[in-house]
């Protein structure tokens, strides 16, 4: 049995405090905000500080990674955001799925800005949008997809973009990329866990085995068949996470000297396969 860490996931590096300040300072440069959320955890991946920072700026929400999220749940989230007066579309920034609707949504969200520009004789003035989101939600992939000449650093890990960058992506739209920013602490420990599950908290600052066990316990309650079908095991309901991880380790033959289970290797596999959608299209929370 692996030694599990009880403390809650918390991570707020100094550069994130700087990012929060940069967002505030840059708001007067943009007409609206594009917020990218992870479709698997739309609630947990939404920074609660943003409402107070951007205030009444028009907002477009992109539910990214919809290809690995439950489509029914994604539809529910779209309706939820629409009921709140927001513009929301499901997308997959890596493949470009859904992004063909982006320009149309921008024009709807910024209709008043466009009308005001026309009144001032500035028809066709570029629309400037700030792209925000917590780490690893796909901001850079979105920008790179939006224009052939747009280039931003991309990596499948949290915290790659560290400074504001402007990109002209065509169709009269300019995007301001900002570093991914989390909030000072996670008041709800479940939120911290979910962000660790999807990789928005750096793996280096979490305990891999603890996170994998928590993920497995969560899935065993809500979607046990996803675990059983992927790892060819049965009877996971009601088990503790470490017991399921042990079953997976045995099934996959992850053994170390003395025939002990290599829990760390099993944990890494579970996290990677969940994030890659190999356990199926799973959404961890509903509106």
UniProtKB/TrEMBL annotation:
Its main location: cytoplasm. GTP binds at residues 64-67, 136-141, 180. Residues 129-183 form the G domain. It is found in: Cytoplasm. Pfam families: MMR_HSR1 (PF01926). CDD domains: YlqF. GO terms for biological process: translation. It comes from the Bacteria. GO terms for molecular function: GTP binding; GTPase activity. One of its GO terms (cellular component) is cytoplasm. Keywords: Cytoplasm, GTP-binding, Nucleotide-binding. Required for a late step of 50S ribosomal subunit assembly. Has GTPase activity. Belongs to the TRAFAC class YlqF/YawG GTPase family. MTG1 subfamily. This is Ribosome biogenesis GTPase A.
């Amino acid at each position: 049995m692996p030694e599990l860490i009880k403390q809650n996931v918390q991570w707020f590096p100094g550069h994130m405090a700087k990012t929060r300040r940069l967002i505030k300072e840059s708001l007067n440069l943009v007409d609206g905000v594009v917020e990218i959320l992870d479709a698997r955890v739309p609630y947990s991946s939404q920074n609660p500080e943003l409402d107070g920072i951007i205030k009444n700026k028009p907002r477009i929400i992109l539910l990214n990674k919809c290809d690995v999220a439950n489509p029914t749940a994604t539809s529910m989230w779209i309706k939820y955001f629409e009921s709140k007066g927001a513009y929301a579309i499901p997308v997959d920034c890596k493949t470009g799925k859904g992004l063909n609707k982006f320009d149309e949504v921008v024009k709807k969200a910024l209709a008043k800005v466009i009308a005001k520009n026309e009144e001032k004789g500035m028809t066709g003035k570029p629309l400037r949008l700030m792209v925000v989101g917590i780490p690893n939600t796909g901001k850079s992939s979105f920008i790179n997809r939006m224009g052939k000449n747009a280039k931003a650093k991309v990596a499948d890990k949290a915290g790659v973009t560290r400074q504001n960058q402007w990109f002209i992506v065509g169709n009269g739209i300019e995007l301001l990329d900002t570093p991914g920013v989390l909030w000072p602490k996670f008041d709800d420990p479940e939120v911290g866990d979910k962000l660790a599950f999807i990789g928005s908290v750096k793996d280096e600052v979490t305990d891999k085995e603890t996170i994998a066990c928590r993920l497995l316990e969560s899935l065993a309650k809500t979607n046990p068949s996803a675990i059983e079908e992927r790892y060819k095991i049965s009877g996971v309901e009601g088990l503790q996470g470490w017991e399921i991880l042990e079953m997976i380790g045995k099934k996959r033959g992850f053994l170390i000297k003395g025939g002990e289970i290599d829990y760390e290797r099993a944990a890494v596999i579970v996290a990677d396969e969940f994030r890659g959608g190999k356990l199926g299209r799973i959404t961890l929370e509903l509106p």
